[in-house]
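quick q for whoever's on today - can somebody do inverse folding on this one?? i tried earlier but teh output was garbage lol. tokens:
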């Protein structure tokens, strides 16, 4: 089974058939898809300027989509290295019980569904790398009351999501499943009740 870098080389290779290059980009999403496979594909297509169902997109647009995905992947891999180093140090210092961020991180190892979007057509507009930087910053500070990606206050608790966890606070503005550890208990409670938590 080809890895991400091998697939990325195929996307860039002008000697490869265009169908293979497109297919290879889709296969990259099996290795890294922050919004989930379908939503990440929709995002990359819209940002690079080709339709998700386009079977013969401009090769330059395919490469542009790949470059955005690669930048986001490098952001996430750097976070995972730092996360692993922190956990090693904590274990060395006797802290064996993982915290809520660690529980969330276990479900997203490798970057799949880090900012899950259950509706593949509703996802953040900005570059993937910037979205991940905002999410990582939120994980590294005290919990807040708004979406860490878009600062949206309209958080609604959704059920039966096609993801693990299958329930949680979803931002009505950008569509991500907001990681519970980045929200205060009050913000989570308001989302469960379907109310907006007004910022002070």
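ok took a stab at it. sequence:
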């Amino acid at each position: 089974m080809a890895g991400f870098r091998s697939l990325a080389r195929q996307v860039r290779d002008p000697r490869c058939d265009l169908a293979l290059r497109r297919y290879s980009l889709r296969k990259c999403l099996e290795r890294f898809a922050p919004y989930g496979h379908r939503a990440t594909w929709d995002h990359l297509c819209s940002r690079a300027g080709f339709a998700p169902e386009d079977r013969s997109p401009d090769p330059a647009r395919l490469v542009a989509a790949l470059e955005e995905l690669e930048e986001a992947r490098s952001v996430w891999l750097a976070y995972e290295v730092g996360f692993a180093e922190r956990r090693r140090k904590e274990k060395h210092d006797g802290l064996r019980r993982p915290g809520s961020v660690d529980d969330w991180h276990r479900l997203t190892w490798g970057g799949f569904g880090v900012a899950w979007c259950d509706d593949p057509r509703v996802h953040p507009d900005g570059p993937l790398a910037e979205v991940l930087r905002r999410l990582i910053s939120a994980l590294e500070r005290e919990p807040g009351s708004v979406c860490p990606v878009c600062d949206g206050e309209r958080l609604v608790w959704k059920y039966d999501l096609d993801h693990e966890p299958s329930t949680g606070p979803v931002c009505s503005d950008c569509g991500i499943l907001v990681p519970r550890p980045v929200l205060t208990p009050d913000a989570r409670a308001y989302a469960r009740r379907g109310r907006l938590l007004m910022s002070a």
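fwiw Confidence is low (pLDDT under 50) at residues 196-200. also The longest strand covers residues 155-158. so keep that in mind when u check it
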